[in-house]
């Protein structure tokens, strides 16, 4: 509805809208390339658009109608979704593959849990409830990104208390904000998700760094994932950050088993044109240490072992290349790294062969010389139920119940709500802490099985959030402060009892036959006439039965 | 010798009480009674709920046509004109030209009642025709002119029924919706090649040019406005090169215009609402394809730089000055030339009639007179009524044709509600066009809701044969013994009667 109506509140909103006409929107893009010890290259694209002075919509004003939206760089399609469902903060990630913390270290984009993950801080109040808007939000995002996020329904939605703190600010409205979090580990990422993702960028995939987002190469990478983050900062405004992260293996791509790479060899194309509206655009390459290498062309600046290229003005095609000229063939390093890439390492397994019981075991290795406190979050769909009394925690082989504190547990509701287990773990230095719990696998209804029922169910990753910032090296200056690092475990596959799917028809036919048989017997008994047949006495009749029933 | 012993022990089964044929027949009958009694229940539980729709009412309603009585009040500055004679003459002329009933009355003091389909015409001596601020048509009256009455009738016809002679433009007007989203998009074909528009001061221009139009149309629609800028909007085809005035320019042929919007690459669609969207695009061609012009069917350059895509939106092409060296921002002043084109496109798309030639608008520029709004209101009412009638008729026909289609309570209620709203619209037509419009809108909403009711599709593809097939193992094996038992009993009864008849025949003989 147009807000030139006489309602003072809407008029005020409109005036605010016109006053903000001069508010600048800025767009920044950055590509980080990090060669790893094992020859792989981590690439991370980050596109952030800041709507200066933008304010999230207060849900209490939803009934007042839509506010006119005028954007230049901010993606309108996303702005419409945020406005329609009055969402303050939103994080969506779609990943494929398993992030190997032990070899690749801690990622620049921390949301690396396999599958889809969506969490949002939504303001309460107004005529539509938080859950209604959460439902609308995930359906709208499912449509926007062509992903099955719509199936992140009540059976997947949890409200963790500690692990997902807001990364921006939350406006102080009369009612507090609420968190909704859901994961879908079986979701995969592909071109159909990347195309709408690119359309949200001001320069799409045509100019600037986004040119390199070539689906043919990205989806052939060892690991790839994309994420969308919307945050609000009181002093800055609404920020949308779109990120894409992929782990490439140049050794696999090259013919002569070298680990040399260039933009052309990794992404299949160089950067041809600069994005005209990017206020900052750069490529950062982390340079190898203690090795002979050559980088071409010469970087604009080199700082702290990083080569920085300014790509806001490109005269000719930029095809960045990093070579190890002394190496004739890449040899995989067999000796362990002097320092583990990630100070925390988590392994989670589901043990047990039966289809009714199992044992969840998590082992967390802390290789730091100091004690770490971390939040451990486990969300389980209702068909895997914890036996909380069997929870055992041990360190170095001896039981240590004191390591576990602040347990919060939301029991599952069959066919309704997932289970949520959240607690604070104390991880002693240089040791492995073991967590074990028995689980029960539920019996599903016939219609609740997925189409490929025999494959089993993917269980969402567990999340470990260290309370002290120990994971990231201080190199990430661009990261906003106050954001806690998260470690995602691998997803699990659980085998549930699957029925024979022709069962309903068998049951119908079987019971029909039984009923028909019973009916026939009873009916026959009730309507049959019994008569005595007298046979002539004779030698033959001697043996014959005296009396026999005979129906007429 | 032991033979007689058991014979004495066994009683003749036919003498047992439960072996009497009467009891057996009772049992058999009881089975059949249960089966027959269960039949209606089975029929009830497996049949589809099909409530009867008011078919005859719908069909009767579909034949009705809505018309608005128009009252015109004539007044004059000069006292020498015979207004009464003129009125009757004008009424005769108008009745032949307008479809609805018209009455023309002479009136000294001009009655101003905006919502009742009455209009005022004032004859003045001043030259030129003008619509005054309060909706009075000031008509230049020249007593010496013999065709003056006819000229006035022509003017009034053009004002009161402006859609009669514009049938070819009819398809441009977007279908009625109570809510519209209006999306303004600045499209740069290729901003990376330079000399493109990086931003526009659209808010100022909108509040100056578009806002008054939308405010006038508030009684018909609710609007949501949005705008965005795109930096890469490639065309799906290459414009042809033509030479004009010795220089090479690029041209869009009429065929190109039909495929101009590249919906695969341009992100124009909205994902959050089902409201129809009217797109107004400002297209800046890439520097290598400037200037871009529109060609007519003969391949000759036209002066126009904009075109309308019927029911979808409008496109305007902006060729920046050739001496532009770098990227630029479109200022509100530059947009002042472009946004009025948007306004004209928007009013065409929303069906706002144009003022006939020779009549001045109350204030120059954007405002729409109450005569135009009334004409639009009447037109939309007629459209909505027709649409609602057709929808209702299709529901009734569809339900008649497809026997498996369920008709629930909500569908029935919606159909009845739509019929009621239609009746109200017909009643209100004589009182106020606005009221009639509101009712017609209700009728259309209810009728479409009934038509698109998801419950009507529920069992469309689940034929009763399937249900029977699954339960055949039960039905077949249970009915066969029942039927056979009846046949058997019937034979036994016939035999018994024969035997009884034979015995009866023999008995008198024996006696």
Automatic annotation (TrEMBL), chain A:
Transmembrane segments: 505-526
Signal peptide coordinates: 1-21
Keywords: Membrane, Signal, Transmembrane, Transmembrane helix
Record's keyword annotation contains Ubl conjugation: no
Pfam families, sorted: Gpi16 (PF04113)
Keyword Membrane: yes
GO cellular component, one term: GPI-anchor transamidase complex
GO terms of biological process kind: attachment of GPI anchor to protein
Stated name of the protein: Gpi16 subunit, GPI transamidase component
Species annotation: Gloeophyllum trabeum (strain ATCC 11539 / FP-39264 / Madison 617) (Brown rot fungus)
Automatic annotation (TrEMBL), chain B:
Cellular component, GO, one term: GPI-anchor transamidase complex
Cellular compartments annotated: Endoplasmic reticulum membrane
Gene Ontology biological process terms, A to Z: attachment of GPI anchor to protein; GPI anchor biosynthetic process
Residues that span the membrane, as ranges: 21-43, 468-487
Pfam families xrefs: PIG-S
Keyword terms: Endoplasmic reticulum, Glycoprotein, GPI-anchor biosynthesis, Membrane, Transmembrane, Transmembrane helix
UniProt KW Transmembrane helix keyword: yes
Keyword Protease part of the UniProt annotation: no
Main location per the UniProt record: endoplasmic reticulum
Superkingdom field: Eukaryota
Pathway this chain belongs to: Glycolipid biosynthesis; glycosylphosphatidylinositol-anchor biosynthesis
Membrane topology listed for this record: Multi-pass membrane protein
Family: Belongs to the PIGS family.
Name of the protein this chain belongs to: GPI transamidase component PIG-S
């Amino acid at each position: 509805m147009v807000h030139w109506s006489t309602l003072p509140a809407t008029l005020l909103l409109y005036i605010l809208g016109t006053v903000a006409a001069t508010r600048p929107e800025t767009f920044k893009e950055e590509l980080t390339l990090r060669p790893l010890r094992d020859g792989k290259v981590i690439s991370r694209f980050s596109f952030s658009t800041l709507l200066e002075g933008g304010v999230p919509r207060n849900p209490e004003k939803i009934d007042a109608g839509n506010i006119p939206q005028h954007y230049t760089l901010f993606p309108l399609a996303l702005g419409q979704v945020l406005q329609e469902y009055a969402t303050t903060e939103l994080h969506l990630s779609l990943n494929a593959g398993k992030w190997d913390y032990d070899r690749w270290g801690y990622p620049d984009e921390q949301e690396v849990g396999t599958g889809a993950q969506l969490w949002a801080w939504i303001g309460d109040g107004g005529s539509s409830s938080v859950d209604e808007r959460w439902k609308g939000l995930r359906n709208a995002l499912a449509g926007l990104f062509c992903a099955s996020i719509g199936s992140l329904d009540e059976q997947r939605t949890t409200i963790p208390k500690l692990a997902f703190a807001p990364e921006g600010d939350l406006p102080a409205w009369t009612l507090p904000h609420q968190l909704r979090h859901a994961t879908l580990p079986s979701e995969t990422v592909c071109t159909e998700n990347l195309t709408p993702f690119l359309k949200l960028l001001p320069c799409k995939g045509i100019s600037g760094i986004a040119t390199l987002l070539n689906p043919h190469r990205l989806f052939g990478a060892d690991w790839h994932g994309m994420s969308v983050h919307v945050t609000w900062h009181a002093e800055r405004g609404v920020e949308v950050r779109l990120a894409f992260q992929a782990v490439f293996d140049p050794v696999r791509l090259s013919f002569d088993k070298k680990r040399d790479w260039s933009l052309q060899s990794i992404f299949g194309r160089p950067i041809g044109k600069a994005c005209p509206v990017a206020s900052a655009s750069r490529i950062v390459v982390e340079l190898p240490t203690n090795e002979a290498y050559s980088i071409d062309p010469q970087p604009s600046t080199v700082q702290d072992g990083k080569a920085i290229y300014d790509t806001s003005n490109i005269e000719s095609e930029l095809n960045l290349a990093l070579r190890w000229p002394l190496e004739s063939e890449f040899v995989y390093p067999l000796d362990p790294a002097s320092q583990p890439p990630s100070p925390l390492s988590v392994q989670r397994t589901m043990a047990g062969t039966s289809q009714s019981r199992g044992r969840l075991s998590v082992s967390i290795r802390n290789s730091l010389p100091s004690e770490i406190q971390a939040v451990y979050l486990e969300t389980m769909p209702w068909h895997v139920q914890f036996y909380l009394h069997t929870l055992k925690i041990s360190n170095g082989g001896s039981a240590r119940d004191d390591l576990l504190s602040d347990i919060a547990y939301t029991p599952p509701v069959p066919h309704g709500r997932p289970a949520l287990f959240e607690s604070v773990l104390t991880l002693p230095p240089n040791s492995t802490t073991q967590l074990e719990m028995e689980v029960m696998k539920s019996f599903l209804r016939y219609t609740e099985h997925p189409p490929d029922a025999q494959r089993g169910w993917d269980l969402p990753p567990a999340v470990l959030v260290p309370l002290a910032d120990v994971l990231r090296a201080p190199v990430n200056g661009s990261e906003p402060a106050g954001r806690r690092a998260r470690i995602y475990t691998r997803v699990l596959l659980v085998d549930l009892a699957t029925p024979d799917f022709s069962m309903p028809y068998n049951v119908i036919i079987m019971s029909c036959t039984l009923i028909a048989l019973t009916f026939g017997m009873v009916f026959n008994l009730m309507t049959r006439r019994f008569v005595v047949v007298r046979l002539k006495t004779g030698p033959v009749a001697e043996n014959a039965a005296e009396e026999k029933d005979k129906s007429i | 010798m032991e033979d007689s012993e058991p014979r004495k022990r066994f009683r003749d089964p036919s003498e047992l009480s439960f072996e009497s044929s009467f009891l057996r027949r009772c049992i058999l009958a009881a089975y059949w009674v249960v089966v027959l009694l269960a039949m209606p229940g089975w029929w009830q539980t497996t049949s589809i709920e099909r409530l009867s729709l008011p078919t005859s009412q719908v069909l009767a309603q579909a034949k009705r046509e809505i018309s608005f009585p128009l009252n015109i009040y004539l007044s004059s500055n000069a006292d020498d004109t015979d207004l009464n004679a003129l009125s009757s003459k004008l009424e005769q002329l108008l009745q032949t030209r307008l479809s609805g009933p018209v009455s023309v009355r002479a009136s000294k003091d001009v009655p101003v009642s905006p919502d009742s389909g009455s209009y005022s015409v004032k004859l003045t001596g001043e030259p030129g025709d003008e619509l005054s601020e309060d909706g009075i048509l000031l008509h230049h009256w020249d007593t010496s002119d013999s065709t003056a009455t006819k000229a006035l009738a022509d003017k009034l016809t053009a004002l009161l029924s402006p859609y009669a002679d514009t049938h070819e433009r009819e398809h441009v007007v977007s279908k009625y919706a109570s809510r519209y989203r209006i999306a303004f998009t600045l499209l740069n074909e290729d901003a990376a090649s330079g000399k493109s528009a990086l931003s526009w001061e659209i808010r100022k221009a909108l509040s100056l040019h578009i806002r008054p139009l939308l405010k006038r149309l508030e009684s018909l629609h609710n609007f949501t406005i949005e705008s965005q800028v795109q930096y890469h909007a490639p065309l799906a085809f290459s414009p042809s090169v033509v030479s004009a005035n010795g220089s090479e320019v690029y041209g869009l042929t009429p065929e190109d215009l039909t495929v101009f919007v590249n919906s695969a690459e341009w992100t124009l669609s909205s994902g959050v609402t089902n409201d129809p969207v009217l797109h107004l695009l400002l297209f800046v061609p890439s520097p290598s394809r400037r200037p871009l012009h529109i060609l007519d069917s003969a391949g000759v350059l036209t002066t126009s730089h904009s075109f309308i895509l019927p029911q979808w939106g409008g496109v305007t092409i902006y060729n920046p000055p050739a001496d532009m060296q770098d990227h630029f921002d479109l200022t509100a002043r530059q947009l002042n030339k472009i946004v009025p084109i948007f306004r004209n496109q928007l009013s065409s798309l929303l069906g706002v009639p144009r003022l006939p030639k020779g009549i001045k608008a109350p204030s120059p520029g954007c405002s729409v007179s109450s005569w135009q709004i009334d004409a639009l209101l009447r037109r939309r009412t007629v459209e909505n009524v027709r649409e609602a009638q057709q929808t209702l008729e299709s529901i009734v026909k569809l339900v008649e044709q497809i026997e498996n289609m369920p008709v629930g309570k909500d569908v029935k209620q919606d159909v009845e509600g739509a019929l009621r709203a239609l009746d109200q619209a017909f009643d209100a037509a004589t009182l106020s066009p606005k009221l009639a419009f509101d009712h017609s809108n209700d009728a259309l909403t209810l009728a479409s809701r009934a038509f698109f009711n998801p419950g009507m599709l529920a069992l469309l593809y689940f034929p009763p044969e399937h249900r029977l097939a699954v339960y055949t193992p039960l039905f077949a094996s249970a009915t066969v013994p029942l039927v056979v038992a009846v046949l058997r009993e019937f034979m036994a009864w016939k035999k018994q009667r024969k035997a009884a008849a034979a015995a009866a025949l023999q008995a008198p003989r024996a006696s």
